[in-house]
Amino acid sequence: MGWLFLKVLFLGVTFLGCLYPLVDFCPGGETRGQKPNFVIILADDMGWGDLGANWDTETKDTANLDKMAAEGMRFVDFHAAASTCSPSRASLLTGRLGLRNGVTHNFAVTSVGGLPLNETTLAEVLQQAGYVTGMIGKWHLGHHGPYHPNFRGFDYYFGIPYSHDMGCTDTPGYNHPPCPACPRGDRPSRSLERDCYTDVALPLYENLNIVEQPVNLSSLAHKYAEKAIQFIQNASASGRPFLLYMGLAHMHVPISRTQLSADARGRRPYGAGLREMDSLVGQIKDKVDRTAKENTFLWFTGDNGPWAQKCELAGSVGPFTGLWQTHQGGSPAKQTTWEGGHRVPALAYWPGRVPVNVTSTALLSVLDIFPTVVALAGASLPQDRHFDGLDASEVLFGWSQTGHRAEPKPVMGTSDRSSIMSLPLFLTWKMMLQKLCL
Ligand SMILES: *[C@@H]1O[C@H](CO)[C@@H](O)[C@H](O)[C@H]1NC(C)=O
Ligand SMILES: *[C@@H]1O[C@H](CO)[C@@H](O)[C@H](O)[C@H]1NC(C)=O
Ligand SMILES: *[C@@H]1O[C@H](CO)[C@@H](O)[C@H](O)[C@H]1NC(C)=O
Ligand SMILES: *[C@@H]1O[C@H](CO)[C@@H](O)[C@H](O)[C@H]1NC(C)=O
């Protein structure tokens, strides 16, 4: 009896052993021991309704993104972790809400701090797992000393330290209010507008060096595309898996003027800017397709909703107009916790893995990117802290439709009110909007 059992066991194990090479495929995403590459593209101030696939208005300006939606999965209930820039980006890179990672406000040009150094970024986790890591674009998580991206897990960095309206340029572009160009020679150029920065010319960094100052806004998108393509090329040639995180300048103001003059059909600045962004994403996707298709997971999303005070230079919230709000002179957009402030476009593209032309209604968030990417990379989450997202790979691969459940879980005994507008702020807001747009 004992022998028979052992024989059966032995045969069984041998049989499974033979099968093993055939089933060397795990939900974690590692096929034949190859770790997947990740490209995470984050648009700035883009509205849910700006994506043609989400909200089909008469002019569609996002042909490449719409194609990506048809070739992958589009999430319609996907949310930023905050409705302003720095907190949203800090959450993406730490997988934690602002109340936990310490970033609840935007950093300024004069900030000497940044994302707290005790936080571990997604790039650091992947670097440990053998990845080549790159960041191209707007950082906005502190730019001095140890807060610079090169010290936060990125082997390569090319971009601007904060928003491109936080410094003057030679070609100011469309903004609301319009801001003057950088002063030339002895000519002072002080703007009376509170929102215009004339003291510091916007710098462009490559790793730790400033390579251009002021930035030429007209050629920034082209430079981002060029560097992204180079990075993907170099990383692929190195034989190591890579993470590329891109913080686009689009659709934040100012919107560069060349975009409009280059547009033969004379579209309005916002539409022309949207087309330029779409083309930039298209170029990156093409490079991925040519270099590392089927082993690269491309994720496109936004940092928060459109910036209502920028009027015709702001994007569309789609159906999330918050009529009650707008009738009161308020807004359901960026800087608010109303739907249009944090519901953002989101697309996942990974040929052969993410099913094509699927719309997912699963409730997911930018906070889920960290645990999902870490799981797909076969790495593990730091054990000494709480993460606010979930591993969404089952949803991405079409095996589940369940994202977060609607009931909010209590966060360390307090509720997260960090980004809910206070009444005085709301009233100031209302007055500003009325002054600006009406
Ligand atoms: C790091 O410090 C910040 C600010 O003091 C705090 O909010 C956060 O919880 C700390 N993070 C970790 C991982 O301990
Ligand atoms: C800025 O870039 C545009 C587009 O590439 C170019 O035509 C222009 O000459 C550049 N301006 C400067 C000051 O280099
Ligand atoms: C890619 O590699 C080339 C050759 O080593 C180097 O000159 C270039 O700076 C690299 N580019 C990026 C974006 O890593
Ligand atoms: C995607 O799905 C929609 C509706 O489900 C369909 O109308 C469309 O033709 C599909 N597109 C492609 C490229 O398969």
Offer a quick outline of the entry.
The protein has 438 residues and is an alpha/beta fold. Helix content is 31%, strand content 12%. The protein has helices spanning 2-19, 63-70, 85-94, 98-101, 122-128, 217-238, 257-261, 269-292, 323-327, 339-342, 369-376, 393-396, 423-437; strands at residues 37-43, 73-75, 78-79, 132-137, 156-159, 204-206, 209-212, 242-247, 296-302, 346-349, 358-360, 364-365.
Residue share in β-strands: 5-15%
Give the count of structural domains. 1
Which class best fits the helix and strand makeup?
Answer: alpha/beta
Q: How many beta strands in the DSSP annotation? A: 12
Global morphology? globular
By DSSP (H or I, 4+ residues per run), the number of helices equals 13
CATH architecture: 3-Layer(aba) Sandwich
Order of helices and strands: HEHEEHHHEEEEHEHHEHHEEEHHH
Which regions have little confidence, pLDDT < 50, spanning 5+ residues?
1-31, 412-431
Instruction: Kindly report the name of the CATH homologous superfamily.
Output: Alkaline Phosphatase, subunit A
- Rg, rounded, reads 23 Å
Widest sheet, order of strands: 7-6-5-4-8-1-9-10-2-11
Largest sheet: 10 strands, mixed
What is the class in the CATH system? Alpha Beta
Attached small molecules: 2-acetamido-2-deoxy-beta-D-glucopyranose
Instruction: From the 3D structure, determine the CATH topology.
Output: Alkaline Phosphatase, subunit A
**Considering DSSP H and I runs of 4 or more, what fraction of the residues is helical?**
25-40%
* Average pLDDT level: 86
Distance between the termini: 89 Å
